[in-house]
Amino acid sequence: AQRVTQPEKLLSVFKGAPVELKCNYSYSGSPELFWYVQYSRQRLQLLLRHISRESIKGFTADLNKGETSFHLKKPFAQEEDSAMYYCALSPRTDKLIFGTGTRLQVFP
Amino acid sequence: EAGVAQSPRYKIIEKRQSVAFWCNPISGHATLYWYQQILGQGPKLLIQFQNNGVVDDSQLPKDRFSAERLKGVDSTLKIQPAKLEDSAVYLCASSSLTFNYGYTFGSGTRLTVV
User: What is the pLDDT of residues B59-104, one digit of tens each?
Assistant: First the structure.
């Protein structure tokens, strides 16, 4: 079955601390994986995708096929990073399966 | 570019009533999606259109939900009759044919069924 698991509903850190939001997936083929973010009172938006191997707002994510994981990391959290983060899997080129999301709270 | 427009923003109805949501995608985007996001869960795809044809409606509860995109532009999602468990945010998204995983989401419609 195609599934995305985000084990943490809430992650709280202090400003400047490292952040890792966990994402594990279940998929038999070669996955396309993404992180979406929703800031307070804003729309859901794409943060980054693994095929681009990019760093957005200091966030990076590495696909680990052996562990079937795609964890989102940032070395130094900022207060403006507080948001809801969703990991998503694309089993085909135009459909997304989302995880349940992790709320990141960054305290000053 | 203008974003994906959705209306209404909020709707409260009683169970067994009907409700309709409207979506206007980004101009030129051929593919339109309706997602349902229940509180505490991630968005779940209900239906996907390409132009005015249905690509995927496997998770649409067809006994009560219907959707159309008559001219390949605007779309309407209807629920009739509504149940308590339909309380959710209904998100519309669109993408171009040259899909590069860049969904653009609307602000959503928050439905409360009482």
Answer: 999 999 999 998 889 999 999 999 999 999 999 999 886 655 568 8
- Asked whether the beta carbons of B50 and B30 are under 8 A apart, the reply is yes
Give the SS3 label for residue A4.
Answer: strand
What's the rounded Cα separation, in Å, for the pair A35 and A32? 11
- DSSP, collapsed to helix, strand or coil, labels residue A81 as helix
Place of tokens 């990141």: A104
Taking the C-alpha atoms of residue B33 and residue A97, their distance in angstroms, rounded to an integer, is 13
Residue in chain B lying closest to A47 (CA):
B102
Q: How many CB pairs under 8 A join A and B?
A: 45
Q: What is the pLDDT of residue B13?
A: 97
Q: Are residues A44 and B105, on separate chains, in Cβ contact within 8 Å?
A: yes
* Count of beta carbons in the 10 Å neighbourhood of residue B79: 22
Contacts of A50 (CB under 8 A, 6+ apart): A32, A33, A34, A61, A62, A63, A70
Please tell me the distance in Å from B20's CA to the nearest CA on chain A. 21
Residue A36 CA to residue B84 CA, distance in Å, equals: 28
Contacts B105 to A, Cβ<8 Å: 43-45
Handedness of CA B14, B20, B26, B30 (dihedral sign): positive
Task: Mark yes or no for CB contact A94/B99 under 8 Å.
Answer: yes
C-alpha–C-alpha distance, residues A86 and A23, integer Å: 9
